[in-house]
Specification:
Blueprint (H helix, E strand, L loop, with lengths): L1 H19 L20 E5 L4 E2 L5 E2 L8 E5 L6 E6 L4 E4 L14 E3 L8 E5 L5 E5 L9 E3 L17 E3 L11 E5 L4 E7 L7 E4 L2 E3 L8 E5 L7 E4 L4 E8 L4 E8 L16 E4 L2 E6 L2 E5 L8 E7 L2 E6 L4 E5 L16 E4 L8 E5 L5 E5 L10 E4 L11 E4 L8 E3 L11 E4 L4 E6 L6 E6 L6 E4 L10 E6 L5 E10 L5 E10 L10 E4 L1 H4 L5 H13 L2 H4 L3 E3 L24 H12 L4 E7 L16 H10 L4 E5 L7 H22 L5 E4 L7 H4 L7 E3 L17 H8 L11 E3 L32 H13 L4 E3 L24 H7 L2 H7 L8 E2 L15 E7 L5 E7 L5 E3 L2 E2 L10 E6 L4 E6 L1 E2 L2 E3 L4 E8 L12 H4 L4 E3 L4 E2 L6 E4 L2 E4 L1
Parallel strand pairs: 13-19, 32-38, 39-40, 39-46, 40-41, 41-42, 42-43, 43-44, 44-45
Antiparallel strand pairs: 1-12, 2-3, 4-5, 5-6, 5-8, 6-7, 8-9, 10-11, 13-16, 14-15, 14-17, 18-19, 20-21, 20-31, 21-22, 23-24, 24-25, 25-26, 27-28, 29-30, 33-36, 34-37, 35-36, 37-38, 47-48, 48-49, 49-56, 50-55, 51-54, 52-53, 52-56, 57-58, 57-59, 59-60
Length: about 950
């Protein structure tokens, strides 16, 4: 009986311990005096500092202390903490109350003298730790008070202190507890890993990493010192390790494109710029100049992976080093550690070390494992002292170099523009600090004018507006500017006027990826098309079904690229025939990659086979290409221009035949600023973010609705007709049941089930994508019987798509904003907004978008999950007139009112976006010079691009200022 009672007591005690333990913390049973505790943890705060044996901060792995946790009492979530490394119990002097302080924690040999702590789990999975007072738990938290530094030196002996802010408010009070000896699965991500790159983690090699996280490694913990990245081609990798969520992101940044040799037919010259000067060989010296136009042009020739000869093409010499050591202030190259030679045999190589996403240190190639103290390119002694090029510490601010491509536009706005013949036109010209547009030479164009009524309002710029020439052709106008020193600058703008533009308004489509991933087929696409037809989405404009990765037979032979007959037994042309049978407006888009293999490493890419593959797609009746950048074999501009040239040639042939244009979508995730070169490379839209996830905020590598918008909101000056920033697929209708879209910042796994977007968040996504003139791509399951394709074993509602989804996606008024013929991306009105920090979950954002006929769309988004009150917006602050009456159409409410001087958004519900279209009631438009002829011709019907259409036109059209969807 005694034995039974003892056993019952042990069972009850074990149950009590299980109840008291915070989720994720495993309590130990074995006391230190009897053996090693069963569960040992390291303690790291959200600033990435660990506790050492004295509980002072450390980032040295060998100094991480280990701690065990023992249940303390019948109070919930209370623990004794044992410092395993120091063989001490963690204590403190109990008092009635505590103040913020350093050195609060003490160590003791006996558990009898140990103190009790309350440990609470945060929503992120981290913890906060509180001491007890004589009467209860103190509202104060373990923290290195005043932060790591003089008061709490690293690897010192000042123990943990206390701070008043909890783990939600202060990173120093936010603790991650990692169990020692337990292997974690680290997921590896990369957008656009070059084909020649290799990632090595603890001796294990990885190639072909992608945004889906298909590859992983098991490790107890991974530090930066455990990772090596081998890459050339002018690339470096920015590595972000998230040890809290066990994921690693590799962002490959190309700083320059190497030239094959100094005699190569194709040369890629660069200007080398440090913060305040450029390199220019003057006489016998490698000197400086502050003028970019006077700077020498350099090419970089890759001798071996990541090692480059630097050749001054202007001066005809190689740059080399004679001694790997910091130089002193020298005014002659003869006395410097950096010299020049015309003899390649004398020259040696250089390597790069990343300082930022824009700058690098240029370091002698012979150095292994360079650090911030490694000698690198520097005008040692300063340009004010006429110092020549020499070597100095890489972490010196004057060792930060940029490779500037002189062929790229120096203007911070688009310089290749498009228009339909005779269409309304606007070109916004925000300039760099100190620069001013003084005039424009329009040449043969008589229908455009320069306006300055916005130079003191909003984003403060001049703009060109009017109507495009009626005759098709390529036009040019010249911008005349002055800078802050009074120098005159000119910049030429190309204007292509054509009735055969790829995409005058943003493309609208349905893509396979987020729902089907690899599991696509003819029959499934036919069922999706039936759903598009059933729900009125084709008539709304979603008229292209795009086959993403894995439509082809798996092979790595580019010459053998073809469709997979098991998935598409009638071929892609057979699929198109079937889709046309459902609705003749349907088109087929397809996917490829500007590299050796696609992102799934499933089928061959098209680099080097651009013309052949495009001809193949064209022969199948394909009308659109989404072109990724995984396993790349050349720089982005080179890779995309090769395909863009093939598309341009095809479109010339199509125009001659009277066929619709082929659409080219660039998808390199915004890594090399495609808004600056995408149009020149032949694209009509380009992804400006990483892959979108079904999340409200997200982060840089996994952007949600607002995360993606944040990354693009200041790129409005690069958007326009036939040149759009692409925010990626919308997640409306997925309801937390998608595949790759579920790999959010908080879920970190493809598939499964997540909360998904609320109806308000879905409307906000639709609102913002339309305000931003982004291509609109659906990716939800529209079949009669939904099925988890990339997300098996999850029960699906039937139907998956809801009435609210359909109402959001077919709202003709918000779609008209997206498809407006002026082609503008909404401007971010930062001065009127409070959500100005990227990825913030507080505040609100105001956007304004110029529409045809002088109308203005205005949106206000509540970033928060609680209601927010937005003050009145003065119309004069958003480029409209004071003391003038406007018709205010509330798009989502479907109501109309008359306003004057102010717009009153009032209260926004959680995650809500309100959208308004404002139309001046007076006959004069608010946008100077814009053609108002469309508004006055009441007897004529127009489509959203401004072209005349018949009365029975199927789709969205305008007559007498009224929109009609048939």
């Amino acid at each position: 009986m005694t034995h039974c009672l003892r056993l019952l007591s042990l069972v009850v005690s074990a149950m009590l311990l299980a109840v008291k333990a915070v989720a994720g913390i495993k309590v130990s049973q074995t006391l230190p005096s009897a053996g090693k505790p069963e569960h040992c943890y390291t303690m790291m705060n959200a600033n990435n500092y660990y506790c050492n044996a004295t509980t002072s901060p450390t980032q040295t792995k060998d100094n991480y202390a280990q701690f065990a946790f023992y249940a303390a009492s019948d109070k919930a979530n209370t623990y004794y903490i044992y410092n395993v490394t120091a063989s001490k119990w963690v204590s403190y002097d109990q008092a009635d109350s505590y103040s913020a302080q350093t050195g609060f924690v003490k160590m003791t040999d006996s558990k009898v003298d140990a103190a009790v702590y309350k440990i609470s789990e945060l929503s992120t999975g981290a913890y906060e730790i509180q001491p007890y007072t004589t009467t209860g738990v103190a509202a104060i938290y373990l923290n290195w008070y005043k932060g790591v530094g003089n008061d709490n030196p690293t690897d010192g002996n000042v123990t943990l202190g206390l701070w008043t802010d909890n783990g939600t408010k202060d990173k120093g009070s936010n603790w991650t507890l990692k169990e020692v000896g337990v292997l974690q699965k680290y997921t590896l991500f990369s957008d656009g890993m070059p084909s020649n790159a290799t990632v090595i983690i603890n001796g294990q090699s990885f190639t072909g990493l992608n945004a889906q996280g298909d590859q992983s490694i098991n490790a107890e913990e991974i530090l930066a010192s455990d990772i090596t990245v081998k890459v050339g081609g002018g690339y470096l990798a920015k590595v972000t390790i998230d040890n809290a969520n066990y994921q690693i992101d590799f962002k490959f940044i190309q700083y320059f494109t190497p030239t094959a040799s100094i005699d190569a037919e194709k040369q890629y010259p660069y200007i080398l710029k440090m913060p305040s000067a450029y390199i220019k060989k003057s006489g016998d010296n490698l000197a400086h100049t502050t003028s970019a136009s006077d700077a020498d042009r350099f090419v970089l020739i890759e001798a071996e992976q990541g090692k480059y000869y630097i050749y001054d093409r202007t001066a005809g010499c190689y740059i080399y080093y004679t001694n790997v050591a910091n130089g002193s202030n020298q005014t002659t190259t003869a006395n410097s550690n950096v010299k020049y030679t015309t003899d390649k045999a004398t020259a040696n190589t250089w390597q790069l070390m990343m300082l930022s996403e824009e700058t690098v240190a240029i370091i002698p190639g012979s150095v292994e494992n360079p650090t911030g103290n490694t000698p690198s390119f520097n005008f040692t002694g300063g340009i004010d002292n006429n110092a020549v090029l020499n070597l100095y510490n890489a972490n010196d601010r004057n060792s930060a170099w940029q490779f500037i491509d002189p062929s790229k536009t120096p203007m911070p706005f688009a310089t290749l523009m498009y228009a339909l013949p005779g269409a309304q036109y606007i070109h916004k010209l925000p300039t760099k600090t100190g620069e001013t547009v003084t005039s424009v030479d329009f040449g043969s164009i008589s229908t455009l004018a320069l306006h300055d009524d916005r130079v003191a309002i909003g984003n403060k710029y001049k703009y060109i507006s009017g109507t495009a020439p009626a005759e098709e052709g390529e036009y040019e106008y010249t911008l005349n500017l002055t800078n802050e020193t009074g120098d005159e600058i000119q910049s030429k703008v190309r204007l292509i006027v054509s009735s055969h533009l790829q995409s005058p308004t943003p493309m609208m489509a349905w893509l396979t990826w987020n729902w089907f991933a690899r599991a696509i087929s003819h029959d499934k696409m036919v069922e999706i098309a039936k759903g598009l037809e059933k729900y009125g989405l084709i008539e709304a404009g979603f008229n292209t079904i795009v086959l993403d990765d894995a439509w082809a037979s798996p092979t790595n032979d580019k010459a053998a690229l073809t469709y997979d007959p098991a998935k598409f037994p009638n071929g892609i042309s057979g699929l198109k025939t079937a889709l046309k049978g459902i609705n003749n407006k349907l088109k087929v888009g397809i996917y490829s990659d500007a590299g050796s293999m696609t992102c799934e490493n499933y089928q061959p890419g098209s680099y080097g086979y651009e013309a052949a593959h495009l001809a193949l797609f064209d022969s199948w009746g394909v009308d659109m290409l989404k072109y990724d950048y995984c396993n790349s074999q050349a720089g982005t501009k080179v890779s995309y221009t090769q395909m863009g040239n093939a598309v341009a040639k095809l479109n010339e042939e199509r125009q001659t035949k009277g066929e619709i244009p082929f659409v080219f979508n660039i998808c390199e995730w915004g890594k090399t600023k495609p808004w600056e070169w995408g149009a020149e490379a032949g694209g009509s839209s380009w992804r400006a973010t990483s892959d979108a996830r079904e999340d409200w905020i997200g982060n840089n590598s996994r952007p949600g609705v607002l995360g993606g918008v944040d990354e693009v909101r200041k790129l409005w000056m690069y958007a326009g007709v036939n040149r759009f920033n692409d925010l990626d697929m919308m997640c409306i209708g997925l309801h937390g049941l998608g595949g790759p879209s579920n790999n959010t910042a908080g879920h970190q796994s493809n598939g499964g089930q997540i909360t998904g977007l609320t109806d308000a968040q879905a409307r906000s996504q639709m609102s913002l994508w339309c305000m931003f003139a982004s291509p609109l791509a659906l990716t939800c399951d529209l079949r009669e019987t939904p099925k988890g394709e990339a997300n098996a074993n999850v029960q699906m509602p039937n139907p998956l798509i809801t009435d609210a989804d359909i109402a959001t996606l077919t709202n003709t008024e918000v779609l008209a904003i997206n498809q407006d013929a002026l082609g503008q991306q909404a401007e971010y009105m930062e001065a009127l907004s409070t959500g100005t920090s990227n990825y913030s979950n507080t505040g609100y954002d105001v956007y304004v978008k110029d529409l045809t006929n002088g109308r203005m769309a205005v949106s206000v988004t509540n970033r928060s999950t609680t209601a927010v009150s937005v003050p009145d917006i003065q119309l004069a602050s958003i480029y409209l007139k004071a003391d003038s009456k406007y018709t205010c159409r509330d798009i989502w409410a479907g109501t109309e009112s008359e306003i004057e001087n102010t717009l009153s958004p009032g209260t926004l519900q959680p995650c809500e976006t309100k959208v308004y279209v404002l139309t001046e009631k007076a006959p004069v438009t608010s946008l100077s010079g814009v053609n108002t002829s469309l508004a006055s011709k009441g007897s004529t019907r127009y489509d959203v691009s401004g072209r005349k259409v018949a009365e029975d036109y199927k789709g969205l059209s305008i007559k007498d200022g009224q929109k009609t969807l048939k």
